[in-house]
Write a structure and sequence with these properties.
56% helix, single chain, mainly alpha, 8 helices
Length: 137
């Protein structure tokens, strides 16, 4: 699949990739697709069993939350909280519900941030941790 600019993909390109069996177009691509305007679309990919990259997109959500809380910009954190509230009211996905719960806890207790859970290759996603609690590290 060809991207016009893989570091600034369009939503159409992201969606096309979501339903392909191709590898990520560039390393750490999560960092280039996790814009606020893409998050609702990314959530739909996590919920869609037809999506080839559900874990990848779920990891993208954790990275987004982690980076937002770690930076500590109160305006961006407020915007994330509003987005979480909106998604919480519409999702039926267990994975998204856990991400929302964990994200809300991290916003409330930012001292629980740890890269291994909120960074690339999140242990929440790739170690399939079932508990909603944030491990104290």
């Amino acid at each position: 699949m060809m991207f016009k600019d893989p570091w600034n993909p369009t939503q159409k390109e992201i969606k096309k990739w979501a339903y392909s069996d191709e590898m990520e177009p560039v390393q750490d691509w999560e960092l280039f697709i996790y814009k606020y305007e893409n998050l609702p679309m990314i959530c739909t990919f996590v919920e869609d069993e037809q999506c080839e990259h559900t874990s990848y997109f779920l990891n993208t959500l954790y990275v987004f939350t982690g980076d937002t809380v770690r930076v500590g910009d109160s305006e961006k954190i407020q915007k994330l909280s509003q987005l979480l509230d909106m998604i919480e009211n519409t999702t039926t996905s267990k994975e998204l519900k856990l991400w929302i719960e964990r994200s809300q806890l991290l916003i409330e207790y930012p001292e629980y941030y740890h890269y291994s859970y909120w960074g690339l290759c999140s242990r929440f996603v790739y170690e399939n941790l079932e508990s909603g609690a944030i491990p104290k590290i």
